[in-house]
Design brief:
It comes from Hyaloscypha variabilis (strain UAMH 11265 / GT02V1 / F) (Meliniomyces variabilis). With about 700 residues, the chain is of the alpha+beta class. It contains 20 helices and 38 strands.
Length: about 700
């Protein structure tokens, strides 16, 4: 079927870019498939209107598009399918409780608005469809189309993308994956390609035969290998133990492998990579010493890998890297002045940068170990629900041509660039001390804070893995920082490290097992937000600390116990005597328990809000009997503000026995109250936290 006259007039080779003024974005109803783009005014938070045109004008409204699709235009048909998907997601948001509170007054289905076409965000072949929000000055990214060509077709040089097949393990899908890897190898200077030392053990997957085998590697053996990142899940996983070790070195039939392992071998053989590393087979399970030793080598195992395979969509080993993907609307069309190509539907959740790189909806993205496995990899091949992605130090590219300039979370290759900078400036004169450039350490601490934020959103099967699952990244940063690793904190920023704010799921990492001291994020099952913004200065001082490791094989792994001694202003806290305020009454009316309010000796009668680290403390009312105190760690003062205007971060602590204290939450103190505590020399004490 031929294109309609309107589609024949589209200037496919010269579509305009997305308007430059779109400098902000959000998600309607927190749905990845409903991105809203807008321009935020510099003077305030209001959205300012972008004048027409915002692209190449296409259909006048949704009904006009639907009518053209009904008459048989193949391109309009594909876009109409995308519009319907968008409408389905929109209607889901309308049915949520949040709709009336947050969205109803500022959003409406833009059924009478013009549809505009622009180039894709990352410059891939195809186009995006934008529609104005008629109520507010925002723009809905409705859907899009990508263009692809079969290898060997007359337009294959014009369109480098190949049609996305439903089977992600088909020959063509394997060729696409190989092309993504080859492009990185051949063109990216920042992605290393040299031979690297092999891990202690690897699987030899030499393509001859239907067996693979586990081998021990000499320390000086170098080569190329693939590492697997996967969910163990609830299904039984094939492992190596002391009992099965000899059998594994003799040979493992391919028919005995879980599907994820089998698919990884298939990828390795297609890429002509002989060695594969899989944690459950290359680390002796139930051997404490071997596990501690090998978990301490995660930095090298994943950063040295030629490629990491991430089975993102699979919940366990039975689901595999490969799977049958949902069919995308597709049509073979004749593009004017270009030739015959495939048009396939684009999903906004894949194309739009803020939602695209996190892969939040994929099972593996919720697992704790997978964070360092992704971040440490020089290049990683993601097998997602909808498509394959290649991530490397030059960004992320998808099977459908979507492109993102940045890596997920952080790009550790930036540390190598920083290494080339001079770290020590020349002294001004012979008597001056060298001035150390702090920019390198600022970069590393910023990376660490970002990593902890993303790590706090993830879960672990074994709570005691909380520190080990970050040990590879910690080991890498330790090689760059002139600091000691203190149960998850860095010795050159201990006060800042103690001043984290508990966000999200407020609960201990484990109620029965020791995962770290109360003052470390390792003890908390949620986001431990570190890094206070602005010009904060340390008030308290670190006097001493001690950490006892579970095993000397991993200096960044599990700890048996740890304490830290701090000198700073310490005052008692008592429950506020004032009743609930208006906000707290609203919360109670919604069935939620307000945060406790506590008073220092210098407080007004209302007191200050305590944010407890564990919701149980608040819900049970147990906080009333804890004899809590607040230790001021750091403060911030606006240089242009009045003398008494100050803000302090207070660590809320409670007795833990033997004269020691434990962290239970945090609060902010400000102005006269904070100044009185800081100036009262009788308040300053040594406190040992466990």
């Amino acid at each position: 079927m031929a294109l309609c006259k309107l589609c024949q007039s589209i200037p496919f080779t010269s579509l305009p870019l997305v308007p430059e003024g779109l400098n902000s974005s959000t998600r309607l109803g927190d749905k990845n498939e409903l991105p809203v783009l807008f321009r935020r005014s510099k003077s305030n938070d209001e959205f300012s209107k972008l004048e027409d045109p915002i692209g190449c004008a296409w259909h006048k409204c949704f009904d006009a598009l639907a009518e053209s699709a009904r008459t048989g235009c193949p391109l309009c048909n594909i876009v109409q399918a995308g519009v319907q998907i968008w409408l389905d997601h929109y209607q889901e948001v309308e049915r949520t409780p949040a709709w009336n509170y947050f969205y109803k007054k500022s959003h409406v289905v833009p059924k009478e608005e013009t549809l505009w076409l622009t180039k894709r965000f990352g410059g891939g072949d195809g186009f995006m469809v934008l529609v104005r929000n008629p109520i507010k000055n925002g723009i809905y990214f409705i859907t899009g189309v990508n263009f692809a060509a079969e290898a060997g077709s007359p337009v294959a040089q014009k369109f480098l993308l190949r049609p996305i097949e439903r089977d992600s393990g088909s020959r063509q899908s394997l060729d696409i994956a190989a092309a993504l890897v080859s492009n990185c190898i051949e063109k990216h200077e920042r992605c290393a390609n040299e031979l690297t030392p092999l891990p202690s053990r690897v699987l030899d997957v030499d393509p001859a035969g239907d067996m693979i085998r586990l081998i021990d590697c000499p320390a000086d053996l170098k080569g190329k290998y693939i590492s697997l990142s996967h969910c163990w899940g609830s299904s039984e996983t094939l492992t190596t133990t002391q009992e099965s070790y000899e059998a594994r070195t003799t040979g493992i039939p391919l028919s005995h492998l879980p599907k994820t392992f089998f698919d990884t071998v298939t990828i390795a053989r297609h890429l002509k990579i002989r060695y594969v590393w899989i944690d459950s087979l290359c680390i002796m399970q139930e051997n404490v010493d071997d596990w501690a030793r090998e978990s301490g080598r995660m930095r090298d195992i994943y950063s040295n890998a030629y490629l990491v395979i991430a089975a993102n969509h699979a919940r366990d080993g039975s689901e595999g890297c490969f799977h049958e993907r949902s069919a995308r609307p597709v049509s073979k069309i004749n593009l004017p002045e270009i030739g015959e190509a495939y048009a396939q539907l684009l999903y906004p959740g894949d194309e739009w940068t803020p939602s695209g790189v996190g892969f939040e909806e994929e099972p593996l993205s919720g697992r704790g170990w997978a964070l360092q496995e992704r971040v440490l990899a020089r290049r990683i091949l993601h097998y997602n629900t909808r498509q394959i992605y290649l991530e490397c130090n030059h960004g992320i590219v998808g099977e459908d041509g979507c492109r993102f300039e940045d890596r997920y979370c952080c790009n550790l290759s930036e540390l190598e660039k920083a290494k080339e900078l001079d770290e020590v400036k020349e002294p001004v004169d012979e008597e001056s001390e060298p001035i150390r450039d702090s920019s390198k350490q600022d970069l590393e601490h910023t990376m660490w804070k970002n990593l902890l934020w993303y790590y706090g959103q993830r879960k672990l099967t074994k709570a005691t893995d909380k520190l080990p699952a970050m040990s590879g990244i910690a080991k890498l940063l330790k090689s760059r920082l002139e600091a000691q690793y203190v149960a998850g904190l860095w010795s050159d920023a201990l006060i800042e490290g103690l001043a984290w704010q508990s966000i999200g799921h407020r609960a201990p990492t484990s109620a029965t097992e020791y995962t770290g001291p109360s003052w470390s994020w390792a003890s908390y099952d949620g986001i431990a937000a570190t890094g206070l913004r602005g010009d904060w200065k340390d008030v308290a001082k670190i006097e001493d600390w001690h950490v006892e490791l579970q095993s000397e094989e991993n200096l960044f792994g599990s700890v048996k116990n740890a304490w830290i001694r701090v000198h700073g202003p310490l005052v008692e806290l008592k429950p506020s005597e004032k009743g609930f305020n208006d906000h707290e009454l609203v919360l109670k009316g919604m069935g939620r328990t307000p945060h406790p309010r506590l008073r220092t000796p210098y407080s007004d009668e209302e007191g200050r809000q305590l944010t407890p680290d564990h919701d149980e403390l608040k819900e049970s009312g147990r906080w009333r009997n804890l004899n809590m105190k607040v230790l001021i760690l750091t403060s911030k003062k606006d240089p242009d503000a009045k003398a008494k205007e100050i803000l302090c971060y207070g660590l809320v602590i409670a007795p833990a026995g033997e004269g020691r204290m434990k962290r239970v939450g945090w609060m902010f103190l400000d102005d006269e109250e904070a100044n009185n505590i800081l100036e009262d020399k009788e308040c300053w004490r040594d406190v040992t936290l466990v």
